[in-house]
Amino acid sequence: MIKIEISEEKRKEIEKLHWEWFKNYLDKKDIPFNNGKKKVHAFLQELCKNKEKGLDLVLERIIIGREQIIKDYGNKTSTIYKRYNKCKAKNFPIKIGDRNVENWSLGKILKNYFGFDDFEKGQFPYKNKNGEEVKWDAYELTRRLNIDVCPYCNRQYVFTIKDGDGRPQIDHFYPQSDFPYLSCSLYNFIPSCPQCNHQKGNILNKYASSKEKENHKEFKYDSENRAFTLYPYEESFETKDSNGKIDKTAWFRALYDKQKDDNSPINDSICVKVKKKNSPLNDKIDNSIEAFHLNELYSCNKIEMNNLFDRYRNYCKPKIDEITKLVLQAQLGDDCNDKTISTIAKTYSRRMKNMILGIPLGAKDKQYPLRKFKEDIIEQLDKTYKNMKKQT
Q1: Which SS3 state, helix, strand or coil, does residue 55 take?
Q2: Where are the alpha helices (DSSP H) in the chain?
Q3: Chain Cα centroid distance, residue 174
């Protein structure tokens, strides 16, 4: 689980685009009631018995409210939640085609007419103050977020190629089925890979019924029957302070089991488990591991693990130091003394180690598939090497 990092400048830019699009959508989208079409905005105003200005302020908070606001609106103590649940079962006659009429609940109307479907399809472009047409949709959002790797699993690339040719799927952190009024909320969108979006399901991050809890005993629930995963806009397996120091709450570890028999390949004896320290995030971490099957999926990366182990074993620190000194001597010449070479080698050895172990040079904070996994396993191997060195 990795955090979605967005600069303040980019946040403001995206929030403005999303809110302008949503306002335009409300004023143009029709709901086909049996007694005549009605704009979404007019329907919401009538439903809430709210003045236009007051309604728009509430909608703006729902649509572009930041992390804490979205979390508050997902809580049953919020006014929005109470209002919705009070009238969610109310039926409205919706005209289907030319003749058929169906009774739709408020939840179904909001799920279908609160903007997300049209946002995904790229419908309802609007004009800005300069009269220029602005198209805002899921493609443009993921392009501007520039998230290359799924934040849930850190295993899959989720590039946005170009309009219509590929982008991340959008998972709703708070499921649409229970929170349709958050279905088009910017910070309820989690760009993710198809596998994670499919696996997560609708049991998480909501109030679960007794039956749902009984059917999903694999998750950990709080006192209000909610099983939360980590929220990528705020939480991850590790955090970084202003000085760049990393604090790991959870990390990957390679474990070695006894082989079943002499003919069993070494691959079968290696598995991966996510370890964690005591923290307030423990239940969320466990739920995330379970929801996205992280232990099982990472244990399947046998080729990556064995490749990493072979590289580390064949080019351990003494060998890397030796190669580095030989390279530097060739570059600097025989006149350069050992002290100078050793000083330079400390930095050069790290680069050489990363190259040998397959860690991209110059990646800095940029995410790429399996990054945390590889870095955690290398850290484990370094500690094992140091302990073995102490014992000899």
Answers
A1: helix
A2: 8-28, 40-48, 52-64, 67-73, 79-87, 106-113, 116-121, 138-145, 194-200, 210-215, 282-291, 294-299, 302-314, 317-332, 338-357, 371-391
A3: 13
pTM assigned to the model: 0.86
The string of pLDDT tens digits covering residues 269-279 is: 688 999 999 99
Determine how many CB atoms are found less than 10 A away from the CB of residue 121: 10
Contact between 61 and 181 (Cβ < 8 Å): no
- 373 φ, ψ to 5°? -55, -50
**What is the distance, to the nearest Å, from the Cα of residue 379 to the centroid of all Cα atoms in its chain?**
24
Q: For residue 149, what are its two tokens?
A: 């790797």
Maximal CA-CA distance, the chain = 93
Residues 6 or more apart from 303 whose CB is under 8 A from it?
A: none
Whole-number Å distance between alpha carbons of 186 and 43: 22
- Give the chain's length: 392
Are 48 and 26 in contact, with CB atoms under 8 Å apart? no
Cα separation of 223 and 338, whole Å?
64
User: CB-side exposure of 236: number of CA atoms within 13 Å?
Assistant: 20
What pLDDT was estimated at residue 258? 52
Closest CA to 251 of 199, 298, 306: 298
Query: Residue 281 half-sphere exposure, CB side, CA atoms within 13 Å?
Result: 20
Question: What backbone phi and psi angles, to 5 degrees, belong to 240?
Answer: -125, 130
Task: Report d(CA 382, CA 376) in Å as an integer.
Answer: 10
Closest CA to 122 of 151, 84, 164: 164
Strand, helix or coil for residue 371: helix
Tell me the pLDDT tens digit for each residue of 305-319.
888 888 888 777 666
Residue with tokens 């179904």: 108
Run of H or E residues at 171: strand 169-172
- Local mean pLDDT, 10-residue blocks, the chain (392 residues): 92 96 95 92 83 80 94 93 90 87 93 93 90 92 93 93 83 94 96 93 93 95 96 92 83 74 54 93 96 93 86 73 65 64 64 79 82 91 80 69
Q: Which among 298, 193, 185 has a CA at the least distance from the CA of 237?
A: 298
Distances (CA, A) of 381 to 252, 345, 346, 388: 12, 21, 19, 10
